[in-house]
Amino acid sequence: MIPSVSSDTGLVLDIVVVEDHDFVREELVTFLQRPGWRVRGVDCGEALDDALRYRPADVVVIDLNLPGEDGLSISRRLRTAMPQLGILMLTARTLSRDKTVGYQSGADVYLTKPASVAELEAVILSLSRRLRRAVADGPRLDVTACRLLLPDQRLADLTLLECHLLYELSLASERQLDSSALLFRLGNHPGATSRNLPVIVSRLRHKISEKLQLPDIIKAVRGHGYRLTLPLLLSESPGSDPQ
Which CATH topology does 14-130 take? Predict the structure, then answer.
């Protein structure tokens, strides 16, 4: 279960604001902290990925006009990787077709700027009530306990490197990364080298197949690295330290 919050439950809602305009981002973070929510601000998709590696979120507020990867692309891959995530687009684009594309890209709510603070808070409260508080059908990656779990309570304990690898593939566009990009995202994990990567993936695939009866969860794509064959719900352990 990802910690989430509404005024009904008293739990803490975790929000990330993705906005490249410093003043607007700081204003949004300050405002959204007032109901007692945990709020972080980032300025681009890459910084968002770093923030989500540090701690999963319940709701992401995304501007569309961002440097590098735009808000629509970010929304599409987040919706694939984290179906339970609340996605709110807050943008100056006002045309009907822009809203249509926004919703097609995975947004739960599309608001145009300037949105009133009362409307923004009400929308986020509504989203928090609709957020999934339990995993339904698919496997769940607990990023704090380093475990892959199924709804029937079967689980596979993972090394930190294995957990990180699954997390990075989950966040990637179409759940696929070439080997060099995957190694870059794995950072300084001991043993994460181009020579060892096929062995690491093979052992992880075998572990998941043996423990969870999920064969071929990671596919080697010739010339294109590795692809996760089904989405994982990403969460943190209940009661984990938000830091």
Answer: Rossmann fold (3.40.50)
Non-local CB neighbours of 125 within 8 Å, separated by 6+ positions: 6, 7
CATH 3.40.50.2300 segments of the chain:
14-130
- Note the pLDDT tens digit of each residue in 72-100: 999 988 887 777 788 998 888 877 787 88
**What CATH class does 140-235 carry?**
mainly alpha
Are 63 and 113 spatial neighbours (Cβ–Cβ below 8 Å)?
Answer: no
Q: Which residue blocks in the chain are alpha helix, DSSP H?
A: 22-33, 45-54, 71-81, 96-104, 117-130, 160-171, 179-186, 197-212
87-125 core/surface letters (b: 16 or more CB in 10 A; e: else): bbbbbebeeeebbebbeebbbbbbbeeebeeeebbebbb
Residue 164 identity (one-letter amino acid): H
Q: What is the pLDDT of residues 100-133, one digit of tens each?
A: 888 888 888 888 887 777 888 888 887 776 664 4
CA distance 180 to 60: 28
Backbone angles phi, psi at 86, to 5 degrees: -85, 125
Q: Smallest Cα–Cα separation from 192: which of 148, 228, 162, 225?
A: 162
Q: Which are the contacts of 187, defined by CB distance < 8 A and separation ≥ 6?
A: 164
